[in-house]
Input
Amino acid sequence: MTLLHFLVPRSSVPTNAELSSQWANPGDILSLLLIVGSDIVQSALAQLSGGFIAPVCFSFGWVAYAFTTLAAMAGTGRLMPATDFPCKVINLENGYMRENRSWVIGRLLRDAFEANGGQGMSVKVFEAPKRDDIDPRSRQTNMDVIWWISLAVMMVQMAVAAIPWALYNDWGVFMITAVGTLLALLTGWLPQWKIEKLAARKESKKLVAITPGNGSQQILIVKGHGKSIDLEDLAGAQSPKDGRLWSESKLFTKAIESKRPYQNQPSQEQNREVLTVNGLPLGFWFTRVFCSGLTLCWIALLISTSGLKAHTWFLLCVGAVGMLQNSIVAAISRKAETRGLYFNEIKSFRSHKTMDALMDLEFMMPGKIKPLLKEYLPGELRPEEQAWWVGQPEAYEKKRLQESNKRGIPASMRKETPLF
Output
């Protein structure tokens, strides 16, 4: 007998039996799958959170996401992911430009132009509602088709998990699915999602442009009328550690009466003072403690999952359905109002050349488009282009008319009226 026989003992169970056992009840792989895919879970939560219920299904990746969130609470404190569609927000009234750090604005631009094909510069102009009955923070997440389908998928998961309980009196799979779904719903319920998602001032009257910048073919322009979120402010993605973000939360603030000037009488309006602990908002401390508790619960669920030895295919099916839902929700396009941004599209067009698009926009919004001109065409302009921008458009537009079958008729000759 060689030394190898002592160092590597032979298994008493044949290999084919081991493989058959694993494929019959793949228990070990479930524990492994629960710790992959945290990024998908975070993006799905960013899509559906903001209301009381965020129906992001229990799936593989939740345990890893819990630990990722715990690390974020010790650092930046953010629940929202970083923007996955880089762009710039340009104030067209003063020319100020800032790099966007808001996930919501990035998705707004991406989704606005998703269905646009063809070549050339694509432009969309949105206008915020002028009505007084719209509060941008009062209805952050509408229950659209994606929301209802996600809720239905949760019900399907519970039905699948109940099969081994009904057929074999084994309630383990149902228990893990139910607890995992409850923990997922509690994570999406956190008030900080609503606070952080639209972390900006409201009542904006600004005229701003959102664009990926030089070299891109999309420009989205938004005009506020005093009842919309300040997109320029939102682009900064303020930290949830900033007490100003929590000022409208009734749960973590207290009402204070303001006095009228020179009078010792309370005003009809009430301001709210943000409650703080050690210099940080109480709401942020609540998120920290709550996420810590959720992480402990996810660890307990992971241990319980490792103990399942029978009917694990049903739990694997539940996790696969949940992962499919998470992946679709994380990537799918949604309307702006489902993110709490209420805009009406008032103009949309495409131009073969970037300069043509900018000139048409300048005619529609006199004196507002030069910041975009500097962004897209920072170099020296041709003589006829320079003449156009100083009020002598004849030479350029004559040349454009000669190629009108490809470049279209200038806005100044189409009897267009200024938008703003």
Confidence is low (pLDDT under 50) at residues 265-269.
